[in-house]
Design goal:
Layout (H helix, E strand, L loop, with lengths): L2 H30 L4 H29 L2 H16 L8 H15 L2 H16 L3 H22 L7 H18 L16 H6 L2 H15 L2 H13 L4 H20 L10 H21 L3 H8 L2 H19 L5 H30 L6 H17 L9
Helix pairs in contact: 1-5, 1-6, 1-7, 1-10, 2-4, 2-15, 3-4, 3-5, 3-7, 5-14, 5-15, 6-11, 9-14, 9-15, 9-16, 10-15, 11-14, 12-13, 12-14, 12-16
Length: about 375
């Protein structure tokens, strides 16, 4: 692995390691502070909405400057500083304020990191899938490790675990390769305006985000549901890790799945796999069916994500690339927030039945993205 690819892989791993602890186990930490399922869902929606607004806003300045490493260092350090006060927050208003603050600081980290990978894949032939898979490996390792550490119900340790991986993310950002020397990007008034002028491109980004939002129930409430079903946090961590193993294998061999033109096939697979996965998780919490359903994460998440990334690689110029990646992330997050607002009351009253609407969400998003992929790529100027 080349030096630059190694540095990118390390940053990707550290960034997704944050998610590997925060996504599965933060709801449990919030519950340990006395919050109800509805309040946890509300904080999740606020966090997603904050990220959805902050990410494309920051991306405007990143695209105008072209200095991606500098911005990533700033964002990762800010996220570490903003997360620290959670240790002393117990009341809902304080938790809400800190959730907004952390969302603003951390929102651009993942989309900007993805943007760097896409640019490297385009310019230097670095295999996107085989570099991105280290993020999946780190997510798996973090969720497994956190499940073991938290297995005795000591949810207070979650804060420490998140702080450690946030610190690793900041250090790895400092070690990223320097930005290539290029002429300063020509000023664009509002990069998003140029992106939004293409209906088909917008359909791909929005549709991809909606497909990903079908994971809202899984991301926010699966840990709580499985714990209430009698599973240990160690087994729950294994469920999460298993899904990421499947995702990792998918990315490792993604290059063999076809190049340009394969996006629609990948998206169809994602929608069909979602129909099966959410049906199983809605119907049972038994170990064997859940373990089998988790393997489908390779398609419900990874195939859908790769379809959108491949579209961005050939459809969007570098001067708009951070904005495009952030718009995809923002639409993803916004769709998650909307879906979560609808299913939170359903989960509070009916538990795993909240998985059933996810099938329809995935189908709608997939249809929109597939329509957008069917047209010609925009002939961008400049």
């Amino acid at each position: 692995m080349g030096s630059d690819r190694l540095r990118l892989a390390c940053f990707t791993a550290a960034s997704f390691g944050v998610l590997g602890v925060h996504v599965p186990f933060w709801p449990g930490w919030l519950e340990s502070r006395g919050l109800s399922a509805v309040e946890i869902g509300e904080l999740g929606m606020v966090y997603m909405c904050t990220r959805g607004v902050a990410s494309p806003t920051w991306a405007h300045f990143v695209d105008r400057s072209g200095r991606r490493k500098l911005w990533l260092v700033a964002f990762t350090l800010a996220a570490l500083v903003c997360f620290a006060p959670f240790a002393w927050a117990h009341e809902y208003p304080a938790l809400l304020a800190l959730t907004v603050l952390f969302g603003v600081a951390h929102a651009p980290v993942l989309p900007l990191g993805e943007n760097l990978l896409v640019l490297q894949a385009r310019e230097r032939g670095i295999d996107y899938g085989r570099t991105r898979l280290w993020g999946s490996v780190a997510f798996m390792g973090a969720s497994l490790g956190a499940g073991i550490v938290l297995d005795d119900g000591a949810w207070s340790r979650t804060w420490w675990l998140v702080m450690v991986v946030l610190a690793l993310s900041a250090v790895s950002a400092l070690c990223l390769p320097a930005d290539p020397v290029r002429p300063r990007p020509r000023a664009v008034g509002v990069p998003l305006a140029e992106l939004l002028s293409d209906r088909r491109a917008l359909a791909v980004l929005a549709g991809g985000g909606i497909v990903q939002s079908a994971h809202a129930m899984y991301y926010m409430f699966s840990t709580l549901h499985w714990e209430q079903s009698g599973h240990s946090t160690q087994l729950i961590g294994a469920f999460w890790a298993e899904a990421v193993v499947a995702e990792t294998l998918f990315f490792a061999f993604a290059r063999q799945l076809g190049g340009r033109g394969s996006e629609r096939v990948l998206m169809v697979l994602a929608v069909l796999a979602g129909a099966v996965r959410w049906s199983v998780l809605a119907s049972t919490s038994a170990v064997v069916p859940v373990a089998a359903a988790q393997l489908l994460h390779a398609f419900t998440f990874a195939a859908a994500h790769l379809a959108v990334v491949r579209h961005l690689q050939h459809a969007v110029p570098e001067r708009l690339s951070a904005s495009a990646q952030s718009l995809y992330g923002a639409l993803n997050i916004g769709a998650h927030a909307l879906v979560l607002s609808g299913i939170t009351p359903l989960y509070a009253s009916s538990g795993a039945a909240a998985y059933w609407p996810m099938i329809a969400v995935g189908a709608v998003g997939g249809a929109l993205a597939i329509w957008g992929m069917g047209g010609r790529a925009t002939e961008w100027r400049g």
